[in-house]
Amino acid sequence: MDNNPTTGQCLCGAVKFRISGEFESFFLCHCSRCRKDSGSAHSANLFSSTAKITWVSGEANIKTFHLPGSRHIKSFCSDCGSALPISQPEVGLLVVPAGSLDSPIDIRPDAHICSSSRANWDEALTSIQRIEGLPS
Ligand SMILES: [Zn+2]
Ligand SMILES: [Zn+2]
């Protein structure tokens, strides 16, 4: 088995999980749905067709929202609202929000996707000043 499982949890700590196996792809999606559901410039999701998730605690806290008429799904903790992994064994897919993980991962994002839908402020973000902590 996996000696170094990838672990994660929600912000309030109620939901904890462990993932064993490899991720195949990592996409930053700028579509309007992902911007709404993340509240940010883009989602950052890891995808695997082989990795397995084990819910360590708080599985009863997980709520899943399926946007009607779409394939857009979001899972989140019903207490703190943090994004959580979505396991879809029926289609052989595990989707994991990268920000929900506590352990480092050895995969880098493959691509920005739906880039044409990005917010109008989402331009050349890497050129903006970087502050180590909070602004003074
Ligand atoms: Zn929570
Ligand atoms: Zn998207």
**CA-CA gap between termini:** 47 Å
C-alpha Rg, in Å?
Answer: 16 Å
Helix content: under 10%
Shape: globular
Descriptive overview:
The chain is mostly beta strands. It has a domain at 6-24 and 44-106: Metal Binding Protein, Guanine Nucleotide Exchange Factor, Chain A (Beta Complex). Helices cover 5% and strands 36% of the residues. The protein has one helix at residues 32-38; strands at residues 6-9, 16-20, 25-29, 43-48, 52-57, 62-66, 73-77, 83-84, 86-88, 93-97, 111-113. A five-stranded mixed sheet has the order 9-10-4-3-11. A three-stranded antiparallel sheet has the order 1-2-5, with no helix packed on it. The protein has a three-stranded antiparallel sheet with strand order 6-7-8, with no helix packed on it. The protein is globular, with a radius of gyration of 16 Å. The model has no long low-confidence stretch (mean pLDDT 95).
Please give the structural blueprint.
Elements: E1 6-9, E2 16-20, E3 25-29, H1 32-38, E4 43-48, E5 52-57, E6 62-66, E7 73-77, E8 83-84, E9 86-88, E10 93-97, E11 111-113
Parallel strand pairs: 3-11
Antiparallel strand pairs: 1-2, 2-5, 3-4, 4-10, 6-7, 7-8, 9-10
The protein binds zinc ion (2 copies).
The site of one zinc ion has 9 residues, from loops.
